[in-house]
């Protein structure tokens, strides 16, 4: 398997492989294009987001300071380091894997929110500004903080 196939299969991969470096260059270009567009240029912004994310729902807006991380590293040193790595090898020293992020319909992420790999944010939920979402958030809740935690249920009138 090549490095992209390993990544898509949830296996450890070399995040410095050319394919990922090219993705990073393209992502930065698209992010700049997105943020250079005026607020009212909604169709153009939507088209850029679709290219960047692969697919999006309706009425999507992503603020300039929201961060979505899909790449991760094991926490334990022995699991994180590539076996047999030396500075002379071409292999990257740290094992990297990726987990998808899912943000369901009707969510609102406040400014400065960070969403970590493997997290799902349930439909209708609101994530408060500056929150770091480390675990799944159920639907129709207000969640805030670092780490982000549920404060209360919301959207009760619409849930019936």
Compact summary:
The chain is built from 4 helices and 11 strands; from the N terminus they run αααββαβββββββββ. With 160 residues, the protein is an alpha/beta fold. The longest helix is centred in the first third of the chain and has 19 residues, at 18-36.
Describe the overall structure.
The chain has 160 residues and is of the alpha/beta class. The chain folds into 2 domains: 1-36 and 72-97, no CATH class; 57-68 and 100-160, UDP N-Acetylglucosamine Acyltransferase, domain 1 (3 Solenoid). Helix content is 26%, strand content 17%. The strands form 4 sheets. A 4-stranded mixed beta sheet has the order 5-8-10-11, with no helix packed on it. Strand 10 and strand 11 (149-153) form a beta hairpin.
Task: Give the topology, please.
Elements: H1 3-8, H2 18-36, H3 42-53, E1 67-68, E2 71-72, H4 77-80, E3 97-98, E4 102-103, E5 108-109, E6 114-115, E7 120-121, E8 126-127, E9 132-133, E10 141-144, E11 149-153
Parallel strand pairs: 1-6, 4-7, 5-8, 6-9, 8-10
Antiparallel strand pairs: 2-3, 10-11
């Amino acid at each position: 398997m090549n490095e992209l196939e390993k990544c898509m299969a949830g296996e450890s991969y070399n995040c410095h492989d050319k394919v990922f470096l090219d993705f990073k260059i393209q992502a930065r270009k698209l992010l700049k294009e997105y943020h250079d567009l005026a607020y009212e240029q909604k169709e153009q912004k939507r088209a850029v987001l679709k290219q960047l994310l692969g697919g999006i729902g309706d009425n999507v807006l992503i603020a300039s300071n929201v961060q979505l991380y899909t790449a991760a590293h094991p926490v334990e040193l022995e699991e994180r380091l590539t076996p047999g790595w030396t500075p002379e090898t071409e292999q990257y020293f740290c094992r990297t894997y990726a987990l998808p992020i899912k943000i369901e319909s009707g969510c609102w992420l406040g400014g400065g929110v960070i969403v970590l790999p493997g997290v799902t944010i349930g439909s209708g939920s609101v994530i408060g500004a500056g929150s770091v979402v480390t675990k799944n958030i159920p639907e129709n809740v207000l969640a805030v903080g670092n780490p982000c935690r549920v404060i209360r249920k919301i959207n009760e009138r619409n849930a019936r």
